[in-house]
Each structure stands twice: as C-alpha cells, then as structure tokens.
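Homework help board

Subject: predicted structure for assignment chain

Our instructor gave us this sequence and asked us to write out the predicted structure in token form, then describe one feature. I got the tokens but I'm not sure how to describe them. Can anyone check?
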Amino acid sequence: MFVRDQLADQNQNYRGRTSLFKDQISRGNASLQLREVKVQDEGRYRCYTSTMRGNQEAFVELRVIVRQPHTEGLLL
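My token output:
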C-alpha cells in the first residue's frame, strides 16, 4: 500500500502546505489537507486514487471566501 505524499511531483505553490491523513488511508479515506489557504488556491481540483480494487477519480471545487476581521468594539 502506498501511504506517503508524492512530493517530488508536487506543484511549488503547495509546498509545505499539504498533508495526508495517513492513519485514515486503510479505512478508505485518502483526504488531503491544505493549510494556509490562499485566494489563489480557488479552483477545481482532480482527486485520483489507485488501489488493488482499481482506480477512482473525483473532482472538488474549492471556493475561498475572504472575510474582513471583526473590529466592533476594538480600540485602535
């Protein structure tokens, strides 16, 4: 079973911001976590997994919403 990140082929824009839930892979969860999300990360992502049972492909649409910090009652 392949349970590690394939970092050699990783896009430079995501370096140091991704991780797999390795303890969940044996349960069928191949989720990838993206940290420090940026507006530029918004878009359609292709998710591809390959196992002994076969290959699967899915697409995820990531929408990034930027909110202004809450300043009510804040003294500046």
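Reply (TA_rk): Your tokens look well-formed. For the description, you could write something like this. The domain at 7-62 is CATH 2.60.40.10 (Immunoglobulin-like). That's the kind of observation they're looking for.
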